[in-house]
Amino acid sequence: MKTKLLFFSLLIFSLPSFAQSKIVTANIKVYGNCVMCKKRIETALDHKGIKKADWNPKTKNLQVTYNSSKITEQEIAELVAAVGHDTDKVKAKDEDYASLPFCCLYRDSDHAMRKDGNHQ
User: Fold this and answer.
1) 3-state SS of the chain: helix, strand, coil percent to 5?
2) Exposed / middle / buried, residue 88 (Cβ in 10 Å: 0-12, 13-18, 19+)
3) What is the pTM of this model?
4) Which residue has the higher pLDDT, 87 or 7?
């Protein structure tokens, strides 16, 4: 009887640790220029396992909250690169980058230095 009680107690107390999700917040440098970039980047991260994504055009910082048991930071960077935006971890393919609107072209362009981060 003691063995059954011990087993049952261990089972009850260990279940919550299995059920806990691994929610992580990461900051990733993502290159872009304007509010159109912001919308594109954040929309790309409307993905399973990602709880929240917020990209700041001025700082180029993406703050993303995600479940690390469902998606990795590397996979997040790949999702962003797939829509044409470089990160510190993954560079967008040239053809994806070239498909961006002119105002969103941040590589070697003079309009990348706009202080307001807005599209005109």
Assistant:
1) 40, 20, 40
2) exposed
3) 0.74
4) 87
Contacts of residue 68, Cβ cutoff 8 Å, sequence gap at least 6: 22, 23, 24
- Which candidate, 39, 45, 52, 44, places its Cα nearest to that of 117? 39
| pLDDT tens, position by position, 28-37 | 999 999 999 9
- Specify the CATH class of 21-113 in words: alpha beta
Burial classification of residue 12, based on how many CB atoms lie within 10 Å of its CB (0-12 exposed, 13-18 middle, 19 or more buried): exposed
Q: Within a 10 A sphere around the Cβ of 15, how many other Cβ atoms?
A: 10
Q: How many residues does the chain have?
A: 120
The position carrying tokens 């980047």 is 41
